[in-house]
Amino acid sequence: MKADPSLEKNEKALQGLLSQSSDFKTSDFAAGDRRYRLFYLDTMIELAVVQDHIIRPLLRHTDVTVREAVSILDYSETELLSVASKALVEGKTVLQFYGEAKFYLLGTELKKERSINTPVNERVLRGSNEALIENLDTNINLMRKLITTPDLAVKHYQLGRRSNTKVAVLYLNSLANKDVLKEFDRRIGRIDIDYVEAPGFLQELIQDKKNSLFPQILVSERTDRVRSYLMDGKIAILADGSPDCLIVPVSFWAFFQSPDDYQIGWLIGSTFRFLRIVCFIIAISLPGAYVALVTFDPRIIPFEIALTLQSSMQYIAMPAVLEAIFMLVTLEILREATVRLANPVGQTIGVVGGVVIGTVVVQSNLISTMMVVVVAFTAISSFVIPAYEMRSAARLLSYPFIVLSAIFGLIGLVLSFMLVLTHLARLNTMGIPYFYSGLSSDTIKDTFLRGPLGSLKKRSKESLAQDETRIRDPRGWTK
């Protein structure tokens, strides 16, 4: 529907398109022989900008065009009412003067955002303390300040039929693989949904296997981490209203890496990296291994330890498998209560609840003391994993390990590992192998361990970067 030369008719039409919203306002003024009307949502605009950069210039310059008079960069024109209504909800002021069937769309949006703080979910030991926030433009600004090259490309999308969520895709044009970009563009372009909640909706809608426990897209709020992945030729996805960034494609090993590994010596960084992978194995298998040993194969346990286990389990009527499941479920309930409650109360519930429940279940002979130790060590091991999604996957994986170990003993434990490895080997991320791409001869130096910088000459295989060489002559001064 096109604009009408009548200001009153356009006002009624825009009011109808905006569902009779109470914050839709109009303002009339005259400059010379011209009669102007402003249409705007008073909850979305900066009034000072309207007065200083639209009304005053038009009153001062009565013999020039609107484009020449107003001092606003965000300027466009349209004859469509639908375009004008969309501009209004974006915070723009729509200008029309009587007798002309045209709208002038002027950017006057009110910008309110929280300040840039340190990362909340990813603790920084060394490196940048700037974290992403909910404003998309500010996040792009942060990334452009960190990557000062015209090679950084930003592509915008609008997802959601009703929400019109703004999404930005960042990549380095000379590094990102064109086939991966094309596949990503195909997937995100075919999303047909009313409302997009980032990053959760996007993560589920574009990943390869939606039913896998293992995360196939990395989520980060650290700007330095996003920069490092962009420099590897990967793609970063930012959404308006979310302080998180999605990284694709990534391998299984990326979830055990931390930017802090590269801020310290490679020997220390390698130790911490290896420790995280060992803790992941402990988190998924320790309760199952305990159940298998005490239920089927106690003779494998050294005699002194077996005596200790026997004394702790002497009056316990509950089978070991039920002990493990009961304690893990109790731990999950405590963890969820700690997260959902207000911060001071949540910390109190976590400490008091853990101590009280642990003491009561042991003294009442419901759970053995050794099972409390096993579950506590399992929980601590899962907390060592840097990525929240991988921590959650490790906690949930422990349950099938327990069940198979309770049925088949140590054979069930081995079978569980085989099933997990088979599943990982079959997973893809954006059509690229998820697990074994990090085990090639060039990139294995940055998976289990963090090798010296001089040995990390190749970029990760899963990124399929156009330029595979990352480091050429790092210590040229020694020649």
Automatic annotation (TrEMBL):
> Record's family?
Belongs to the GerABKA family.
Record-annotated membrane-spanning stretches: 274-296, 316-334, 341-360, 366-385, 397-421
UniProtKB keywords: Membrane, Transmembrane, Transmembrane helix
Instruction: Spell out the Pfam families in the cross-references.
Output: GerA
Compositionally biased, Basic and acidic residues: which spans? 461-479
Q: Which PANTHER family match?
A: LEUCINE ZIPPER PROTEIN 4, SPORE GERMINATION PROTEIN
Output the superkingdom of the source species.
Bacteria
- Cell membrane as a keyword of this entry, yes or no, is no
Q: What is this protein called?
A: Spore germination protein
Q: Where is this region: Disordered?
A: 460-479
